[in-house]
Please model this.
Amino acid sequence: MLRPSFPGLHCFAYEPPGCIFSTELTKVSRDFITSFVRQDDVIPRLSFHNFERVRDSFFDVFCRIKVPKIQLFFDLRQPCTERFLEVRNAKVLRPQGAIPKDTSFYATLEEFRAERAAKNSESVNAVQLHVPGRPIHLIDSKNNGLYHAYWAKHDDFNTVEISPRMLSDHDIHCLPDVLSNIQVST
Model:
């Protein structure tokens, strides 16, 4: 809104919500807004579509469970090292392509997904929303507090990253230290 009065104005958005700009408005704002997104920060990934993707992923995993749910509950309570995670998953989950499609649960799930898709295509939810402007993604690939920055695409934030740091990456108090020690990547 200030651009007509101040054409040289440039906005720097730190960890902005991801549910505010349409694709078209994002393209228009690339020249005067730069957004900084830290690693797995959930806030820039907040959008209706992203949470629908999380819900659908949950249902996909739920369909893959091949043991009684109570057994899975107790299995998950036991710590598992990264080394044995694949073995544990193979015991409790079917492969992605082996989901039984002849169950009443799967039929109900497909009805639900079709109903949601129809509703979303007809409503305000049909619009995919993004972080504003041109995003810079800050990644701490070695988990040592040194972040690398690169120009990201808006699609890079179309999934909610479920991780131990998804909330802590939104801590604005750490951001000045993160930005002062940034490593620039091309």
About this structure: The CA atoms of residues 10 and 32 lie 5 Å apart. The chain has a mean pLDDT of 87. The two ends are 32 Å apart (CA to CA).
